[in-house]
Amino acid sequence: MAEVSAQARIAAPAEKVWRQLTDFASYGQWSATHTSFPKGGPTPLAAGATYQENMKMMGFPAEVTWTVEALEAERVLGIAGKGPMGVNLSMRYTLTPDGDATELRIDSSFAGAAVAMMAGKLKDSATAALNESLRKLAGLVE
C-alpha cells in the first residue's frame, strides 16, 4: 500500500473552498491527475453516489470508478475507487476553517499488487500531484 498526504492553508473561507472542490465541472482547472468525468460528476453529491473519472497517474491513463463514502458539507469529502489492474484508491479531503482561511488536507492511498511493484515512485508522483493540485485550487479561490 502507498499512502500520501498534502496540506495547505488557503486564504478563503471553507464555504468557498468547498464550493470549488465539489464543482466537478472545474476539476480540470486544478486537479493535476484529472483528465475527464466521462458521465459527469456524482449527481447528486451524496454518500453512496458513484461516478467514473479518467485520470493520468505517473504519466499513464487510468479509469477509476469512485464511490462517495464520507460527506459532510464544507468539512469532509471521502471517496473510494477501483482502478485498473485491481488497484484500490481512496481520497479524503478534510477542510478545517481557520478564520477567513481554510486548512485543506488531502489524504490518499493506493493498494493492490500493481502498487507494491512501484510504491516508491507512486508515492513521489502522487505527493507532487497533490501539492500541485492544492496550489492550483488555492489560486482559484483566493
Automatic annotation (TrEMBL):
InterPro entries in the record: Polyketide_cyclase/dehydratase, START-like_dom_sf
A Pfam family hit: Polyketide_cyc2
SUPFAM superfamilies attached to this UniProt entry: Bet v1-like
Signal peptide extent: none
Name of the protein this chain belongs to: SRPBCC family protein
